[in-house]
Each structure stands twice: as structure tokens, then as C-alpha cells.
Amino acid sequence: MTSPLLRVDGLSVVYRIRDRVLHGLDDITLAVNENEILGIVGESGCGKTTLSMSIMRLLPPNAAVTAGRVTFKDRDLTGLSREEMRQLRGSEISMVFQDPLTSLNPTFSIGQQMRFLQRGHLRESRSVQVDRAAAALQRVGIPDARRRLGAYPHEFSGGMRQRVMIAMAVLLEPALVIADEPTSALDVTLQAEILELLDDLRRSRGTSILFVSHDLGVISQICDRVVVMYAGRVVETGSVQSLFACPLHPYTRALLGAVPSRRHRGRPLESIPGRVPSLSELPIGCKFADRCGYVDAVCLPREPDLLQPTTGGDVVRCYAYDPSVSRSASFAELVDASLVC
Amino acid sequence: MSTVDALPEAPTTSASHPGWLGEVVHDIVHRPVMLVGLGVWVAFIIMAIGGQHLAPYAIDAQDIAHRLQGPSHAHLLGTDELGRDLLSRLMVGTRYALAVAIPAVAIALVVGVTVGMLAGFFGGVVDRVVVTLLDSVQAFPAVILALTLLALVGHSLRNETLVISVAFIPSYARVTRALVMAAKNNQWVDAERSLGARPLRIVVVHILPNIAASLFVLMAMDIPSAITISAGLDFLGLGLQPPTPSWGGILSSGFYYVEQSPWPVIWASVFLVIATLGFTLLAEGLRDVIDPRLSR
């Protein structure tokens, strides 16, 4: 395993709203390896969807990438022409969206839509395309696939529609699927089925998945590694095991503390005070400072960089793990807490 | 319990599926109001195509001795100021009414939808330019605009058609723009882009069918108003000129002699009312049949 399948290096995205410039993403760095499921977790508005859209180069017109690059299979996606990028979407990278009820065009049968997709990328006979579509439906567990190709989206239930969306996303066997909250609109049983399906695809086809979710439970079930985002930044990255067992960043700790679990039995469920800062009034220093239980004077004037902690995990954006910063009492408390795991 | 096993197998829907056309026919038959509209329109289209063969008299056959008469055996609807048979003239006039209204609305539809789709989908500068243009056109009342343009380009069947279509273009462009703007926010548009669809293809192949029902209904509703506008222009002497037996023209010359005989005015109005009412009924019925949200 030499270079990762997808690399995002120092990606920054701004939104222009009237005459204001809002920093949607700031210096995002992450990598998805082959045959890996990378989770992106964070609260609403932390830039998860902006990230997936900027990888696909499908940002709305008022958003622009100001720095950084996205490298896929050693090709810089930011440098591709529009047509090259279009060719890539669907065949090399594809997406599954949150709401399966609105992700399919209601006026065409799913078979037609699956053929449209293939015609945009390949020149093949109708029968080959129909065969491939039927096989894809079969693979995602839709019974009687060949006959169901003639059905319209409204004839499917929500879970089935998400299966159809996944079938469309993997139809041309892309190397990477970006799944943007694919299970958030589904109930728990369906959620488990869809997760199993995605995991299956990874196993059988070697498809890498960028799995975006706000649900830590779901992330822990399916992902190999996790990126925690806050206010358009990466605050912590690590393997699922290390991140869930000994989270480093105060935000990650707080998120995990807010998940009901046996560990907290009998104690009231914790919540994170305050709310995600609005993009228009981000603090100058650490973006989590005003909600952080371990905040110190050093956190306020300047934002910490991502650094490799000595205690485990991949990277974390917190002064408490910075050896060059003198340890205050609250930092020592945080580091000690993260060591006990 | 084996009750479940004993249940007969559910019939499959594909076995006796009536199909889309079958459903539409079924819907039409069960809507008497729409049937009336349809009937009116079949009759008018027959008159438009074969009016001169079905009419009892030639449109220019004068009988000055029996001018401005009421309905009689010889002339079912009476005669005009030159003793010409009103029924024959109105029947043949149907052709001029439809020959202006239908192409005018069709042209407005094609131009308006194209402009509206571009503005709605691409937004930005394109949208602003289009909206400004539409605003300028719509600032004039349709009839006044048509009057002015006709005065400029001179009157003929073709010019009248074009002028009316210009007056109708903004409403199509606007409706299309709004519908496209709403439709492009659907997640399936994002989904299609993320799977590599070309933008133009998304608008034409994917969005257009989603908004076609609304446009079709708008078109059906506009044909009667195009008929009315064209009759108005003819009435004012700016459209088709005598001796062309247009409804507006018959109304106009009848109006001149209304004190001697009201019949030309009455019958011309009746034809206009039946035509507009018939098409409106048909259009409303079509809307209900086509729009799945209303029918089921």
C-alpha cells in the first residue's frame, strides 16, 4: 500500500455571501486508503457536506476552493478540466446522498436512470447496460431485479430506494464512494442493513468509502479510521479503536460523552454547552475554546496546529498535547484523562 | 396457524396493467366536463379544416336583398350587412382563429421554455439579463404591446401570430424559470451531477419532463386567451382585414350595424365564448388527468 487512494491536502473553501467571506473549510488534510472506510464525523454545519462536495467539485457557485489540493489516484482533481471531472464522477468517484426519497428522478424508471448513467460514460449496447443494471440491483439485495428495473422510484420504500441509490453509485465500480449521511434518514433496522451492504461492497469489490455522518454509533460500526471535524477544521484523526477508546481532543471527548452507553449508566447524559460557532463569527484562537472544559489562556489568541501526540492517535489540534506549551492544571487533567483508557 | 398459507396468491399488477394511455382514456371518459370541452374542440377543429366544404353557402356569396336578417330556414344564423350567410362565415372563420392562436402559443412555448430553462438553471448573469428583458416586455399590457407591434410591422396572419406569441413569451419563460429553479434544488439533481451527468442534459432530459405537465396546462389555458386577443385585434381593424371572415372582423362590422340587426354580433360572440369555454374546460380536465398529484 503505497500512496493513499484519495488525499486532501490543506483544503480551504470559502463561501461568498453578499460581500462577506465565510470560511467553510480551513486547512483540511486527510487521506483515504484503498479498501478503507474513513468516517467523517461532526455536528451539523461543521463542513462535512462542503468537504464531500468539494472533493466532487460540485460546490455551489458562491463557494470557492482557495487553497489546497485533492489528489485521487495520483491525479490532482483541482487541475482537471470540467469534462474530465464529469467523466470521473460516477465512474471513479460516486456519491450516495442522505435522503433516498428525493435522490431519484420521479419521472423515470430506475432502469432508465441506470442506463442514463452508463450512457454518460460508456458506449455499449442496450442489453449489456440492462444486464449490468440488473446485476447491480441484485448485488444490493433487491429481489426480482430484472423486473424491478421498470419500476419508478415511488414504487420503492425508503430503504429500497437507498439500495437503488447505492446500486447506481457502484454501478460502474468506482474506486471511491462518498456516502453523505446515507443512513440518517432511515430507521435503525434499515440503517443496519445499509451499513452491512456498504461493508459488503468494500469487502467484495475493494471499494473505498468516505463515510460522512453525525452519528458516532454508526461510525464505530463501519469505519476503519475517523476524522473528527469542528467548525470547518479537522480536530482529531485516528483509528476507530484508538479514537473511541482514548479520545484526545476535548471536542471528541465531549462528543463521546454525549453518546448514551453502559459506561455512563446511572449518570445523567452529558451535553456540550453552547453551540457550534457561526461561520460569520468564528473565534480567533481555538474554535472550540468557548465550549471547552479545559480551556486555558494559550487557547484564545492563536489557533493550535494539527500535531502528532505522543500518547496515541494520529493527529490532534489541541495545545494540551503540544510539548512546547507549558502544562496548565487543566491541560494536565486532560492529558491524564486521555491516558486512562 | 396455516391461514397465511391458504391465502390465494396476490395477483400481479403487470398481468392486466392498462398502461399509461389506457389510464388517460379511462380518466377522460370519467370526466364529463372534460368530454364536453373535448367535443367542442373536435367540432371546431373539423370546422377549421373543412369549414368551406361543410358551410351551406360560399363565404363571399352576397344577397343584398336579404341583408341583416335574423335566423331563418335559408340562413340558420341570419345574414350580415352584405347579405352573406353568417353561419358559413363563422364556420370558415374558425380556421383563422385557430391558425393564429395555436401557432402563437406554440411559438411562445418553445421560445419561453428555452429562455426560462437557461435562466433558471444557470442563474447568475444569464438570469438577470433574461429577467430584465422579460420585465420590459411584460411592462406593456399584452393587447397594447400587440397593437404597437402590429402597427409597426403591418398586418398579416403571420405578423398577428408572431405579435401574439411575443406577448405570451414572458409568462412561459417566467413559469419555466420558477419551475426549473425549484426542480434543480431537488436532491436528485445533485445525485445526477455526482454520477457524472452533463448540466445541459440534466435540464433537458431530467428536469423538463418533471415540469412538462404544468407547462402543458398553461398552454392549454393560453390558447383561449390567444383566440380572444386575436379576435380583439381583428375587431380593432389591426389584424386580419375584410373580407377575411375572422370572428373579430365579423364582430366589428356587425357592431357597426347593431341597431339594425344584433345577430352578427350575437353569433360571433357565441362562437368566441364557446371556443374559449370549451378549451378552458378541456385544459382543466387535462390538468387533472396529467398531474398525478391531483388525480391520485
Give a short overview.
The complex is a heterodimer of chains A (341) and B (296). Chain A folds into 2 domains: 6-223, P-loop containing nucleotide triphosphate hydrolases (Rossmann fold, 3-Layer(aba) Sandwich); 247-339, no CATH class.
Account of the protein in words:
- The complex is a heterodimer of chains A (341) and B (296).
- Chain A has 341 residues and is of the alpha/beta class.
- Chain A folds into two domains: 6-223, Rossmann fold (3-Layer(aba) Sandwich), CATH 3.40.50; 247-339, no CATH class.
- Helices cover 32% and strands 21% of the residues of chain A.
- In chain A, the strands form two sheets. A seven-stranded mixed β-sheet of chain A has the order 6-7-8-3-9-10-11, with helices on both faces. Chain A has a four-stranded antiparallel β-sheet with strand order 2-1-4-5, covered by helices on one side.
- In chain A, α3 (110-119) packs across α4 (126-139), α4 crosses α6 and α6 packs parallel to α7 (188-205).
- The longest helix of chain A is centred in the middle third of the chain and has 18 residues, at 188-205.
- Chain A is globular.
- Chain B is an all-alpha fold and 296 residues long.
- Chain B has a single domain, classed as MetI-like (MetI-like fold), CATH 1.10.3720.
- Chain B contains twelve helices and no strands.
- The chains are: A alpha/beta (341), B mainly alpha (296).
- The interface between A and B is medium-sized, with 30 and 20 residues.
Features:
heterodimer; A: 341 residues; alpha/beta; Rossmann fold; 2 domains; seven-stranded mixed sheet; four-stranded antiparallel sheet; 11 helices; 11 strands; globular; B: 296 residues; mainly alpha; MetI-like fold; 12 helices
